[in-house]
From TrEMBL:
<dbReference type="GO" id="GO:0016829">
    <property type="term" value="F:lyase activity"/>
</dbReference>
<dbReference type="InterPro" id="IPR045959">
    <property type="entry name" value="CGDB"/>
</dbReference>
<keyword id="KW-0119">Carbohydrate metabolism</keyword>
<comment type="similarity">
    <text>Belongs to the C-glycoside deglycosidase beta subunit family.</text>
</comment>
<feature type="domain" description="C-glycoside deglycosidase beta subunit">
    <location>
        <begin position="17"/>
        <end position="108"/>
    </location>
</feature>
<dbReference type="Pfam" id="PF19906">
    <property type="entry name" value="CGDB"/>
</dbReference>
<keyword id="KW-0456">Lyase</keyword>
<protein>
    <recommendedName>
        <fullName>C-deglycosylation enzyme beta subunit</fullName>
    </recommendedName>
</protein>
Length: 131
């Protein structure tokens, strides 16, 4: 639904341990961080393992595995999140192909007989950005 605006333009930057870039929420309303169910990152054709991905919202950086219980910490729709990827060393300067797949669980749209059957929106974008 919002794939065309998933990755913030010109946001890819090298860091001491890898890279960072910004993404936007793929829903039209703010959601708790616990709603983030999928965040896959592929850089130059190489998938980044989930344990090497961190998400920073409102100045606080967390590992993907820490987001599940955060039902009271919100990702506001107008605020981009910063994704940190640990590559073991800085990303080289120059153009890089970046693919991001984001799946957000919308907790208030129940689509099945149980409370766990909620709507999940998943978007993917591949872009080339210079670091």
């Amino acid at each position: 639904m919002f794939a065309h605006r998933l990755v913030v333009d010109d946001s890819l930057r090298p860091t001491d341990r890898g890279a960072r870039f910004q993404i936007r929420l793929n829903w039209y309303r703010s959601l708790p961080l616990a709603s983030l169910r999928v965040l896959d990152v592929t850089l130059d054709g190489t998938p980044v393992p989930a344990e090497r991905i961190g998400v920073e919202v409102d100045g606080v950086r967390r590992a993907l595995g820490e987001l599940g219980p955060l039902i009271d910490v919100w990702w506001y729709v107008l605020d981009p999140a910063t994704v940190h990827v640990d590559l073991g060393g800085p990303l080289a300067h120059g153009p890089h192909e970046l693919t991001v797949r984001l799946g957000s669980r919308v907790p208030y749209i129940i689509i099945g007989p149980t409370i766990d059957d909620v709507y999940t929106v998943t978007d993917q974008l591949t872009t080339t950005q210079a670091a």
